[in-house]
Specification:
The structure is a homodimer.
Chain A lengths: L1 E5 L7 H10 L4 E7 L16 E2 L1 E3 L9 E5 L3 H12 L9 E8 L11 H11 L4 E6 L12 H14 L5 E7 L6 E4 L5 E4 L2 E3 L8 E4 L2 E4 L8 H6 L2 E8 L10
Parallel strand pairs in A: 1-2, 1-6, 2-5, 6-7, 7-8, 9-14
Antiparallel strand pairs in A: 4-5, 8-14, 10-13, 11-12
């Protein structure tokens, strides 16, 4: 199998290293990751900025793995990989795995996530894709509880197959895992998101902050409920954003 | 009515000016737009960069309109407006209208679109939202054919109402409009997206390019079919990305 690995926390992050180590038995791994943190980049692309592409030396702890970094976004990583590393033929890539993101991508966070953005580009290109995240933003997050699931779930979900527009958003809780739940995206929103900064030279600027509000806290079938109650959440998601329900 | 207007081509773009002029009869307009082009920003947010917020002088051709610009992204615009201009109360905003984007946001382009990204943040906040785009990337695009539809459709769709997670992606064809079609998102992908640039100081960099491939060109119910056949496409889309179909 030919597996392409990326993330949005950038090359060198603990989540990416953990993912690579665990997926080594799966086949040949190519890593193309941003050269630094790209959190909250969603599906942003470098439409007006040149992108670098660096081939890094092999690493002893990652035997046989080809490692590349770029100045681009997670979405750019998939586009660069398909077009430059694999000659424009997306069929040469069997699977994209993105993560492990330091921080949850459950609930509404999926639309801001660079980790999932990379999966959406893969799905666009017809490549099965899985994104892994953990409900812990610490740069030294403890992945030991989710590690036993990485290879197993990747294999299982890949073998099961994914429809053309579908990929997986997998979120692990912080700490021990009570079990696995297939979930839907929680209806939720961010609140108190803007914080005024100190006025410099008469100019008031603002920073992003805030917290997620679960708008259906009683619903036990959501991804947010799962990760906040100790369960690993598996959510199939689609890049077809059409609303097929009744309007008005 | 209190209407918040934004876009991703930035303040001063012809599409934004056209939108404002046409929506003046609808109620009180607040404009908060990026201070320059932010194309392909998707739902990116300025999570690590301070954002400016400038109140611009009133304009004679936009009577009663409050105009603000920011260094942030289209998604940031909605967050800044809700939290700074409207005191954190999204209920004070009746409707968000984003655009008119210079360039189509039909098919897979919806996931890369800053125009629609702003609508998704509005939907997250429970605010009805409509994004307008035209199938013409020219900075001097001719909006005269779609102008008669702007106020009418905005009114109609707002009065019809939108479910909590739903907003509208409206794309106009280039030139004359043969009619209106309610559509679904076309299955499609971008091809030949990466172009090598000249090598500078031994460093090879790459730029974004390419073209959209319609993977279901015969299907007449898609947004891509509509805009490429002279129809104005109205697509209801949802920020709930869960795939509810059968897997595997």
């Amino acid at each position: 199998m030919e597996i392409l690995i990326t993330n949005d926390d950038g090359w060198g992050s603990k989540g990416l290293t953990t993912l690579i180590h665990n997926l080594l038995p799966l086949g040949h791994l190519t890593v193309l990751a941003p050269d630094g943190a790209r959190s909250g980049m969603s599906n942003a692309i470098s439409s007006n900025t040149p992108m670098t592409l660096h081939h890094l030396p092999n690493r002893e702890d990652m035997p046989g793995v080809d490692i590349y970094t770029t100045s681009g976004t997670p979405s750019d990583c998939i586009k660069l990989a398909v077009n430059v590393l694999f000659g424009g033929d997306s069929n040469k890539i069997d699977l994209v795995v993105s993560g492990i993101n330091h921080g949850s991508n459950a609930a509404i966070d999926i639309i801001y996530s660079g980790t999932m953005g990379a999966c959406f580009v893969a799905a666009e290109q017809g490549i099965p894709a899985i994104g892994f995240s953990i409900y812990d933003m610490d740069a030294d997050a403890d992945f030991s509880y989710m590690e036993p699931y990485l290879l197993r779930l990747t294999r299982e979900l890949y073998e099961k197959g994914m429809p053309r527009t579908v990929c997986y958003n997998i979120n692990a809780p912080k700490g021990a895992i009570r079990g696995i739940r297939y979930t839907r995206q929680c209806i939720s929103h961010w609140a108190e998101e803007i914080r005024p900064l100190q006025i410099v030279d008469g100019e008031q600027t603002y920073a992003m902050t805030g917290y997620l509000v679960n708008d259906e806290p009683e619903a036990e079938d959501t991804d947010e409920w799962a990760v906040t109650h100790g369960y690993l959440s598996i959510q199939p998601c689609s890049i077809d954003m059409t609303y097929y329900g009744k309007m008005g």
